[in-house]
Structure formats: C-alpha cells, structure tokens
Amino acid sequence: MFRYILRRLLQMVLAFFGTTLIVYALMFAGQGDPIQALAGERPVTAAQRAYLTEKYHLDATGVGGFFYRYFDYVKSLLQGDLGQSLTGRQIGDILQAAWPVTLKLALIALAVAIIFGVSAGVVAGIRRASIFDNSTLVLTLLVLGIPTIVLAPLAQYFLGVKWQLFPPTAGSQPTFYALLLPGIVLGSLSLATALRLTRTSVAENLRADYVRTARSKGLVKRRIVTVHVLRNSLIPVVTFLGVELGNLMSGAIITEGVFNIPGVGFNLFRGIRTEDGPLVVGIVSVLVVVYLVSNLVVDVLYAVLDPRIRYE
Amino acid sequence: MTVNPTPASATPEGGHLLELRDLHVEFRTNEGVARVINGVSYHLDAGETLAVLGESGSGKSVTAQAIMGILDTPPAFVRSGQILYRGQDLLTASEEQRRQVRGKEIAIIFQDALSALNPVFPVGWQIGETLRQRSGMSRGDARRRAVELMDLVKIPGAAKRIGDYPHQFSGGMRQRVMIAMALALDPKVLIADEPTTALDVTVQAQIMDLLADLRRDLDMAMILITHDLGVVAGVADRIAVMYAGRIVEHADVRSLYKAPAHPYTKGLLESIPRMDVRGQELSTIKGLPPNLMRIPSGCPFHPRCPYVQQVCVDVVPHDLVLGDGRTSACHFAQEVRDDSAR
Question: Where is the ABC transmembrane type-1 domain (chain A) (predicted)?
C-alpha cells in the first residue's frame, strides 16, 4: 500500500508538469502582445517595455523562449509564488479569498447529495418498482437532463426573485443562508447520480448470496439491510462522492457565475473572459493538484472500504 | 402393490423431527409460471442423514430454501403443503417464529462459500455475529466461541485467521468457515446444499468426512443435497431422488444402489463411469431436463424414459410402495427393479 501511494505521488508530479505545461502553452499561444495586454488600454512607455521584456524574458523567441518562460513560471510556482494577475493582485491572495467560499458551497452540495440522494437511493433500491422508485427515477432523469445553465437561473428566478425564499445572489461575503440555494442547485446533479448509483447498488446487493446466508442465520431484516447490504452497497457510492467532492472543490463556473459567488470558478471564469493568462494558469495549476490529491484519497479509501482490493 | 404413499421408514413416537408434506412451490415470472416443486414429501429423523439427489433444476435447493423460509418472494410462492418441524407447521408460523428456527433449529450451508460469505467482514466477525445477535453473547465471548468453532471444523491456526476476510481463504477452508457459522447455535438439523460442488475432488472428500463426523459428534440430523451419486454412498442413510420437482424414488442407500426402482435413478447409476469395465461406451440419459413452465403430461420423465408406454403419457404415476418400504413413482417400478437386480 505504501509503495502504491509513493508510485501514485510520483505519477502526480508528472501529471502536474504535463497539465501546467499544456495550460500555459494554450493560454499564452494566442496572445499577441503580452505587455500591451498587461497594460490594457493605456500606452506603454519604451522604458516600461524594456523593463517588462527583461523581467519576463520576452526577448527570447520561438519554442526555446517559450520553455524559458515556462521554467521561470514553474520555478516561482515551486517556491509557492503563483505570481500576479494582470490586475496586479497576488494570485495567492485571490485563491485564499475564493477557496473558502467554494469549499462551503461544495460541502453544502455534497451534504444535499448525501442526505437526499443516498437515503432516497437506499429506499428506492429496497422497494424496487414501487411508486417511490419510479417517481425518483423520473425526477432524477429530469434533473440529469436539465443543464445547470438552465436550472440555476430558473431556481434563482422562482425561489430567489419571485417567491423570495432565498437571496437571489450571494455577494462578496456570502453567508451560509445565501449559499444554500446555489448549493442545492449545484448538489442536485450529484444528488441525482448518487441516487441512481445507490439504488442500483442496493438492489444488486439485496439479491446477493450473502444476504441469503444472513437470513439463514436468523438475523432480523433491519440488521441484514443496515449492516450487510448497506456496507457493501455504499462502496461505489462513497468513491463516487469522493471524486465528486474533488470536482466540486474546483469550483462551479456556471453556478458561481449565476449567483454571483466570489469562489474559485467565478475567478477562473473572469480570468478566461479578460484573457488574464497568469490568473488562469495559476488557478488551473492549483486545481490540478487538488484534483490529483482527491483522486488518490478516493483510491486509498476504496481499498480501505473493500478488503478485496489490494494495491501493489 | 398399494398406491398409498407411506414413508420408507417407520414413524418414531412423537412424529418425525422434520417432515415435508405435499409441498408445492412455483416461481411467477414475466415469462410465465414455473412449477418448481410439485408435491414433495419427505421426512428426517434425529441422527440420520437423508440425501436428496437430482440434477440441476430438479428442485432440491428450492425445497431446502423453503424449509429455511429464505425463498425470495416474489418470484417464489409456496402454493400448498406443510413443513412440520417437531410437529409445528413452519409455513403457518409467524415470520418471527420462523426466524427463531433459522440457525438455531435448522441451519444451512451453501454451495459457493465465496459468494455466500459477506466479502467485507472478517470471517470471525461473521461467525460471531450469529452468536451476538441470536444468543446475546458479548463481543469477547463471541470471538472466543468463533475460534472454538473454527477449531471444531479443523481450520489450522484458527485464532490467527479469525480476522481474515473470506477471499483470503482457500475454497475448502472457506467452506469450513461456512460450516462453522452454521454450527454456531447448535442446530438440530443441518442442510448441506451441494456443499462440495465448488471444490476440488480431494477437498470434496475432506469436507464430506468432516460433515459426517460433525453430524455424528454433535448428534444432528442432516439433509445432504447433491447431484453427485459418489458423494452420497458413504454418508447417507436414505436417498430421495428428485426429478422435475417431484420425489421419484425414495429408498435406503443400500437397496437403492443395488437395484434402483425408477428408470431415472437407474439411468443416473448407469451413467457413472466404471473403472472395471473397459472399452464400453458410457451410457447417458438421453434428452434434457424438462422446462418447468411446460412439464410433460403424465409422468414427467416419459420423454426420456426407455420404459415408456402410453400409460406414462396419460397418467401421473403415484408413489408405489415396494416390498421393503421403498417407494417409486413409476408405473413399472417393479419391472425396473427386477431388471436392475439382474
């Protein structure tokens, strides 16, 4: 197990450099004049231009020059310096402000998925083909079918503006209450998937041979379901939720955009829109790490949950 | 010859330990109704071993699960009949009463121990669970008893292996774990549902010996369900042969092997390869087991039977009681037995 984790960490290093390189290349390949982009509409003096060219090694051209700048970037990145955005703010500071908001939103979404998705999935799995099962089936299909770009504004309009049950937008320092509606919207997708997955898993495990054995031991039905069936059924669900948390942590561009939540996705979207190369590359580099780590955690968790899984 | 079905051994005082009377079970599926058990009657007395023999789909396992009350309903429905345990009909008992019987009075071991054991719990925990849940034993006591039980079924280094998971055991050891679990509550009846089918031949013999020893030492009665005639000979007292959800022949082991009185049993015995007769083609029973959704008219075995006459197609044979207390559900039972005896 230890060797496995070590190997995975080494693979992560490779994956990290690969992805940052690609994102870095994509983000700066299309740019015409980075110094002008940095300055925006204002004119750039010759002295400033010379200083910035020197600072960012812009005089080196071609592929060689690109790698020169990339290694510059990685060097400061490894020293913990994500650099400055084009607006002049430290990217580290931006992320420090944005991440707690995204984390709160992610946890609300995950809680919604677990509380409603998993429990409804268990009930639907036990009462297969019942009215409850069929209605959850239709509802989850509906949720999975509607894209967030439609669902989020609808929820905002009806629940936020028309019936005024929730604040329609979050603002710069969002409270838990303000994040509740966006959290539910964001979580509804994970909820639907978690429900379907739990239902299938429970239904399948209820038919397993070990359930027959548990019945032949004279155990009460409640114990058979809550101990034997659930323990097995939740293995795929827990791993799904782990991966999902990793995804949610990287921010929800649409939901954060619609509800005006200053999270990671919101900043990333702003960076892309304003062609803020350093900001986009900075955020994506950190996201890559978050994603890789959460995936490793899920894989290790999987082995802990299922004793049959062995990593060598 | 009489046509009154009577048991092949005398009824002891106070009745049989376990008795099935005219059990009917059907599976209601989308494709139709499969009549899986069609009037099965057999009994078991304390301390004896009854072998239930038959090919796949003959209803052996379904009968066992009906006794345990662990059939999946739906699709399985017990249509009629009685399952008497110490005179009490389990089929009319409440679910709570039935649950009390499971494991404590009647226990069962299954064919494939790998899938029958829960993959995510250690074996010691699974054996101990029965004790904790049913006898209210403490965690520590249950653990100690689980080690004793694993010792009893001769698992080497039981104390060390108690925390291992089912997939870490070999097939034979896993089946021993299954047996240990079934013995946890000292059952009076042990149903072994094809206990050796998933195992290597050498391991099969060990498990059969173990079961025979345990049955004797713990003074249990055993129902041994198998499709393997070789397994039965050394262990069983009586044999009930099943075909298409019916008992077609019922006799003590010795006389059944000597002279089968049903063409199906005769066919089964003749299809065992013999070491002493060389150069002879192995005889088989022609045809296939019947589709349980369309069981043939009359005697269900008639399409495959070498003795078939018009009466077999028209009339369902009763259990004919032959001289020495055996029964055979064949119109020509006497002739078949006389043929076999030659």
Answer: 99-302
- From chain A, the residues in CB contact with B178 under 8 A are 213
What mean pLDDT, rounded, does chain B reach? 86
Q: How confident is the model at residue B164 (pLDDT cuts 50, 70, 90)?
A: very high
The sheet carrying B18-29 orders its strands as: B32-44, B18-29, B76-85, B88-89
Residue A137, min C-alpha distance to chain B (Å): 22
Examine the domain organization and report whether A65 and A110 are in the same domain: no
Q: Are residues A153 and A271 in the same domain?
A: yes
Q: Is residue A106 part of a domain?
A: yes
Kindly list the residues from chain A whose CB atom is less than 8 angstroms away from the CB atom of residue B100. 218
| CATH number of the CATH domain containing A294 | 1.10.3720.10
Assess if residue A27 is contained within a domain: yes
pTM of the predicted structure, to 2 decimals? 0.81
Instruction: Verify whether the Cβ–Cβ distance A305 to B167 is below 8 Å.
Output: no
| Model confidence at B118: pLDDT above 90 | yes
The answer to whether A307 contacts B68, with C-beta atoms less than 8 Å apart, is no
What does B260-308 look like in DSSP terms, one character per residue? --SHHHHHHHHTS--SSS-S-PPP---S-PPPTTSPPSSSTTGGG-TT-
Residue labelled with tokens 């849940």: B133
Q: Do A142 and A9 reside in the same domain of the chain?
A: no
> Chain A contacts of B117, Cβ < 8 Å?
210, 213
- What is the count of structural domains for chain A? 2
Residue A65 binned pLDDT confidence (cut-offs 50, 70, 90): confident
Highest mean pLDDT among A63-77, B153-167, B300-314: B153-167
* Residue A67 lies in domain: 2-78
Give the mean model confidence (pLDDT) for residues A219-238.
Answer: 92
Beta carbons of A302 and A310 less than 8 angstroms apart: no
How close does chain A come to B166, measured CA to CA in Å? 9
In 3D space, the residue among B191, B200, B187 whose CA is nearest the CA of residue B222 turns out to be B191
Residue A187, min C-alpha distance to chain B (Å): 30
What is the crossing angle of helices A62-78 and A2-29, to 10°? 130
Residue A85 domain flag: no
Do A73 and A112 lie in one domain? The reply is: no
pLDDT at residue B325 in the model: 75
Tokens, residue B235? 């262990």
Q: A41 and A107: one domain?
A: no
Alpha carbons B6 and B22: distance in angstroms, whole number: 12
Pair (A57, A149) in one structural domain: no
Q: Which of B193, B209, B118, B122 is nearest to B162 (CA)?
A: B122
User: What pLDDT is recorded for position A46?
Assistant: 80
Helix (H) or strand (E) holding A132: helix A131-145
**What ipTM was estimated for this complex?**
0.87
Q: Per the CB < 8 Å rule, is B167 touching A218?
A: no
β-pair partners for A276? none
Q: For residue A205, give the chain B residue with the closest CA.
A: B118
